[in-house]
């Protein structure tokens, strides 16, 4: 991801599929964060296993991961699906 941003910051144009992959990987990372946060929440609330995470931390992590996942999904949809349909019509 950082290599991609380094190239683009120097004005190097990369193929569209690379930016799609970067966005997809970032989205997957956020969705994995949602899943891990949910699993830790379930462990903390339903088992006697020790868990060092506070409930506030879990709630905030869940909110952050869901928010970023939604933003990445929206960006992907607007950039690669809606724009793709517009360019096909022209």
Automatic annotation (TrEMBL):
The protein's Enzyme Commission number: 2.3.1.199
Pfam families: ELO
Signal peptide residue numbers: none
Superkingdom of source: Eukaryota
Pathway: Lipid metabolism; fatty acid biosynthesis
Cell location: Membrane
GO cellular component, one term: endoplasmic reticulum membrane
GO molecular function, one term: fatty acid elongase activity
Transmembrane segments: 17-41, 56-77
Keyword Transferase: yes
Membrane association type: Multi-pass membrane protein
Keywords: Fatty acid biosynthesis, Fatty acid metabolism, Lipid biosynthesis, Lipid metabolism, Membrane, Transferase, Transmembrane, Transmembrane helix
Catalytic activity, reaction form: a very-long-chain acyl-CoA + malonyl-CoA + H(+) = a very-long-chain 3-oxoacyl-CoA + CO2 + CoA
InterPro entries named among the record's database cross-references: ELO_fam
Entry annotated with the keyword Transcription regulation: no
Main subcellular location of this protein, as a coarse class: membrane
Protein's GO biological process: fatty acid elongation, monounsaturated fatty acid; fatty acid elongation, polyunsaturated fatty acid; fatty acid elongation, saturated fatty acid; sphingolipid biosynthetic process; very long-chain fatty acid biosynthetic process
Record-stated family: Belongs to the ELO family.
Protein name (database record): Elongation of very long chain fatty acids protein
UniProt organism field: Parelaphostrongylus tenuis (Meningeal worm)
